[in-house]
Each structure stands twice: as C-alpha cells, then as structure tokens.
Amino acid sequence: MTILATAVVLGVLIFVHELGHFWAARAVDIEVERFSIGLGPKLFGFTRGETEWVICAIPLGGYVKMGGMDDEVMDKIEGGELRVDSVEALVQSTDRHFDSKPIWARALVLSAGVMMNMLFALGVYTFLAATYGERHYDSTRIGQVVESTLPVGTEELATVDRASRFVRIGAEPVEHWGDIRRAFLEGDAGPVRVDLEEPARSIEIRIPATEAERRSLYESLFVWLESGVGITEPGTPAGKAGLEMGDRVLAVNGTPTAGWYDFVDQIQARPGEPVELSIDRGGSTLVQSLTLDAVEETALDGRTRMIGRAGIRPPGIDMTYERVSLGEAMATGYRETVAITALIVGFLGDLVTGDISPRSLGSIVTIGEASGQAAEAGLETFLSFMALFSVNLAVLNLLPIPILDGGHLMFLAIEALRGGRALSVEQRLRWSNVGFFILIGIMVLALSNDVLRLMGI
Predict the structure, then answer these.
(1) Sorting pLDDT into bands at 50, 70 and 90, what band is 324?
(2) How confident is the model over 292-321, as pLDDT tens digits?
(3) Where along the chain do its domains lie?
(4) Reduced to 3 states, what is the DSSP secondary structure of residue 352?
C-alpha cells in the first residue's frame, strides 16, 4: 500500500506541475521537445506531435524541455554531466525557443507549474468540502491546550482543565467542535467571554485580528480523545502484550488517565520502564504488564529527549458532516489552501532562523510513510494529504535556488533589472551547478534524518 500510495502522490503531483509548464509554453508558442515524469534514464514513452512524452527511472521530479533551453542543463537533468566548458554547443535561438520570448512570457511559463499545484490544492479542498461537507467533531470537550502556540491575549486558555466542555463563546452557544472553529477563525476580533463546564467557569480572551494568529489559536486546541486503543502496531510493546482494539486504558501504574493526551504524557515519561496498564475490556477490568520502548524524540527546536513508547494509536472520534453550498465549499477550499501555504512558509522561515532544527526535514521515506498512512485512513484523508503536499511542492519550487523554478525566475528578475541583458549562458550554467549541489545536500540531509530516525538514533 505504501509504495503504491507514494507512486500515486508523486506521479499525480509531478504531472500536474509539469502540465502547468507545458500548457503555458504552448500558450505563448514555445516549442516543447519533451515532457518527462521522473528524472534520469528513460524507461518508456511515446511521441505525439512535436513532443516526446516519457517516464524516467528516478521518481523524484520531472521536467518540460523547451526549445532553446540550455542543452547542458537538460543533459544534467537527464542523467549526463553539467559542464560549462562547451557552451558554444548550444542550439541557435529561433522564434519558438524559450530564450527568444519576452520576459513576461518566460516568467509565465516558469511560474505555471507552481500555479497548477496551488490550483490543484484549491480544487481538492473545494471538492472535499462540497462532497463531504464541513467536518465537525461531535465533542466540545478539550483534550489538550498547547500553551506555547497560544497568541497574545489568549493565554487564559492554558488554565482550562482537560475534559472541560465549551458551552458558549461570546453570544453563540457551542454544540460541536465546528462552533469553536468558526468562533476563533471567523468570529469578530477583540475581547470575548468563554463559558465552560466540568468545572463551571468563565474566562475572557482576545480573539486575534490576523489570519495567522487565529489559525495558531485554533490549532493550539485539541479535542478530547478517550484513553482507548484504536490500533496496536505489530512488534511493539502493546502488540506483544495483546492489547486489543476497543480496550480502554483506565490507569498507568495505578495513576488514573484523564483522556488520551494524559495517557500519552504518562507513557512518554517512562522510557524503557516496565508498566502495568489497567484495562477495561468489554466491561471487565484486567491488568496488562509491558515494558515500554525508549525512543529519541527530536523537537522542532532541535532538542532531543528519550520518551517511552507503547505502540498504540488513538481511537476514532464521532464526526458530524454539515452540507455546504458550492460557494461555501469554494470559500473553505480557499481558506484551507491559504492556511497550508502560511504554515509551510512559516516552517521554512523558522528553519532559516534556526527556530526549527534541520533534523525535522524528511526525505522520500517520510513522504512514503505519510502517503501510506493517509491511504489507509481513507479516500478523504488521502486526497487531503495530496492537496497539502501539492502546496508544499509549489512553495518549495519557488525557493530562489538555481535549477528550481524560483531560481530561474530570479535569473529573469536580474535580466529585467539589467535592462533586458540576460546573464551569460556560462554564468547560468555555473549557478545551476551550485543549485544542483545545494539540492543534493538537502536531499542527503533529509535522507540521513530518516535513516537515523528509523535506527532510533
């Protein structure tokens, strides 16, 4: 399942991206010599019109080769050597070659792949909203509040007890988790009273004005989950001990569990230790003994710690699906696309400033694991993951690294600032070499992170 899911995710999104370049090139009358899914040696393909359509051996990208593009660059992409000592071998420009077109036309072609990935995400999120409606957790109980991500003015939420229920936010009653979402993401900015039960109390917070802070506020809250067993992973302590789906964990070493997140906290606090779990199984209480795994966890700031792991995934939670109009679905699709874009851009910014460790980067291994898990969770989750990854692909392609779309757009910007004088072919090839080695370095780092993670280092 994982291999197939990964192939579908990468294949579809690479095709969508390159299709954007292809359509834009045709729109401004640029000759397209080859449309490739994958890099390296050609596996198979066919020719239609002036374009050769091929599948290549390395499924980590793709390209559209247009007439007049630097042959050495394309040779490198296709598996050859990128050299700068034979630039005189470049083909002569014609009216249908890429470099013969005005800057605006070339910029359109270079940015079209990113635009297609964003439109794909927008379309998927809109389709999901129109098909499934807006999803809401039936529960209004709080499972956990992440204090570190609460915006200024909302810190009082960190004092709310686990399992407390939202009753009212401002003048609006709270009947399901969707009401909480609407209040914090779409409600009026400013002071608002929040009424809670179990225990009964009221607090006052200030709803932020900016989209990013609203999103941070909402994503700091986690819905209540029972401390039950959804799935036990084979070969883990829980799997070996015989825990079953539907079991409910009542206590860890005699300490009662207040929901899933409290259970996780208790387990993580005991790396490598033997524990006794009090289990409710079909109305009968039994005790299961197991020795927890000790695994290293790397936080986003790069700090590491050893945590306990039992190998249990949480149970599901009841959901309500509320039908929406096409206009509302499109608005939801737009909001989701913007929110994911902001999240990815923020992550990259934190990576540059050092607030997030480079060890948080993942390679094709992480992509494969996430693709497989999304596919197992169902079509809705899988499509949502594809939309998220499509936005990720778009943002990464805009990075100003030579060889990426953003790097080529940077060359065009330099050309425009120089009054239409482009960088020489030799300069572009040298910078493309630099970009190539930067990408290789990032890929090696990401793969090393995954290997170390799998080895438990």
Answers:
(1) confident
(2) 998 877 665 566 788 999 988 888 777 777
(3) 2-130+390-454, 236-294
(4) helix
Pull the structure tokens for residue 8: 């579908």
Let me know if 251 is exposed, middle or buried by CB neighbors in 10 A (0-12, 13-18, 19+). Answer: middle
User: In angstroms, what is the C-alpha Rg of the chain?
Assistant: 26
* CB-CB contact of 193 with 166 (8 Å): no
Write down the pTM of the prediction. 0.71
Looking at the structure, give the CATH architecture of the domain made up of residues 236-294.
Roll (2.30)
CA distance 401 to 396: 10
Contact partners, residue 432, CB within 8 Å, separation at least 6 = 70, 73, 76, 82, 402, 403, 407
Residue 71 CA, chain-centre distance (Å), reads 34
- Least confident interval from 84-88, 401-405, 453-457: 84-88
Q: Tokens 């009662």 correspond to what residue? A: 256
Which of 141, 311, 314, 288 is CA-nearest to residue 228? Answer: 314
- Nearest one of 398, 405, 454 to 432, comparing CA atoms: 405
pLDDT > 70? residue 150: yes
CB atoms within 10 A of CB 288: 17
Q: Which tokens go with 430?
A: 């040298």
* Token code pair at residue 359: 């060890």
End-to-end CA separation in angstroms for the chain? 27
- State how far the Cα of 204 lies from the Cα of 156, in Å rounded to an integer: 7
SS3 39: strand
CB 262 within 8 A of CB 229: no
Neighbours of 250 (CB within 10 A): 17
CA-to-CA dists, residue 453 to 264, 265, 309, 340, angstroms: 20, 21, 14, 25
Instruction: Write out pLDDT tens, residues 8-33.
Output: 999 899 999 999 999 999 999 999 99
Closest CA to 6 of 367, 366, 451, 363: 367
pLDDT tens digit string along 353-372? Answer: 777 777 777 777 888 888 88
User: Cα–Cα distance between 425 and 417 in angstroms, integer?
Assistant: 17
Sequence-separated contacts (24+) of 293-301 with Cβ below 8 Å: 293/236, 293/237, 295/271, 295/456, 296/456, 296/457, 297/268, 298/357, 298/359, 298/360, 299/357, 300/350, 300/355, 300/356, 300/357, 300/360, 301/355, 301/356, 301/357
Give the number of other Cβ atoms within 10 Å of residue 190's Cβ: 12
Contact (Cβ atoms closer than 8 angstroms) between residue 411 and residue 31: no
Amino acid in position 41: P
